[in-house]
Design a protein that fits this description.
alpha+beta, 4 helices, 24% strand, globular
Amino acid sequence: MGAPDRGPAGTFSEQIQSMVKDLRSHAPECVAAGAVDMATGTLLAHETAEEHPAEVLDLLAGATLDLFQGRTVLMIEDVFKERRGVRSDQHDFQEVLVNSTHVTHLFLRMLSRQDVVAVVVCRRSVNVGMLFAQSRRVVARYAAA
């Protein structure tokens, strides 16, 4: 697992495609990767080991939106901001790890682009520490671009 191969050059769309490709190749035991636009809840790019029906990919994008910006999540963030005296548009929920029966999903919000969340899906046997380390490294590289 070396450094990501591609640099974050090109248009926004090309950068997102490259980031997803790098996540797919560098995250351990990765079976799928994608990026979701939090403004619209749409999948910007994806790469999978197997073909998945479009409706499943659309549902993943919608679930990602709910995880990070669902009504209750936004209420929780607002309460914490109010209690801390923080006035910011930045979201508190930055990363979410979900273990299902067969796979582990890692969702990471790009720090410099709060409207994009990277999604990495790995086999359940993945070393979670390595998953976080490799995925954060790739996302940070593209967030800096």
